[in-house]
Amino acid sequence: MRTIKFLFSLIILITVGLSACAQKTNSNTSTPTAFSDSMPKADTSLAAKSSNFWRERLTEEQYRILREKGTESPFTGEWLMHKDTGYYTCVACNNPLFRSDRKFDSDCGWPSFDEEVAGGKVKTQMDYSHGMSRLEILCGNCGGHLGHLFDDGPTSTGKRYCVNSVSLNFVKSNAFKVAETDTITLGGGCFWCLEAVFEKLKGVVSVESGYSGGLVANPTYKEVCTGSTNHAEVIQIVYDVHQTSLDEIFKIYFTMHDPTTLNQQGADVGTQYRSIILYHNDKQRTEALSLIKDLSNSRVYSDPIVTSVEAFKVFYKAEISHQDYYENNKNQPYCRLVIQPKMEEFEALFKARMK
Question: What amino acid positions are annotated as catalytic residues?
């Protein structure tokens, strides 16, 4: 099976190209906005530096907040009432985090935004300090503490990124170039695996793990694992149609999971692990069915493809502990034994297409 997948992937590498085909723009306002390469660039060399390095590089107050997870006094920050047009970046590494038109006055005393710059610029993790349970936001590049994320925002996203001014710098820009995006929902085994792969693909704006295809509203992970909800573990991918294509996404999808095992991927068994494509428009349905037909006729797999192609209805985002799971839990046995080999295979076969 692995040899077949490898040969298929070699074909993909030869034939896949970036297409600028006109696909329907996704109108979901809660989807992170993608930008062209004109935005500021993060200094990726600062991704893993020691405490001593940061003590020398940052001011005392910056170190206290960014590295020791401190908080500045409310209504004192430099960027609280700032109204200029541009990008708010990480003060430590220049990673673009938020753009100015996503900033709003929340009267909380700290700069607030309703949306992050997409593409993993901002990472989250649970924060249980001070006897509270909050979602901490960090720079996705250098890991610096930014603030916290709340679900009480007044805009259509429902989000409030509450950020310390000390954690930010500002780069003035007079023009935002918004990318044209589309959304596809895919299931193929444990969502941790597919999420880890597609987060590394160039042109992918965001990947979220969740549940879809079932009958129960707002299911929990525990409920889905019983198989009683009929939901599949899926990922929802938002991608820039000018940097990647539906064809490329589908071919990587069929390379990185086994579409011939019914309700199973390796040792993961159950209807929640079924191979499923949930299409959002007729173009996606047509391309999915066409590719499955071509793969079947070419006998790429020794067994029949059992991937179901169904109309997308609703996506329920999984609990926060399941988002960016591989990135946050690389030393866990499942990550080392199951996901890491997939990531190595993806890097070997699609290195030119990785971020």
Answer: 162, 190
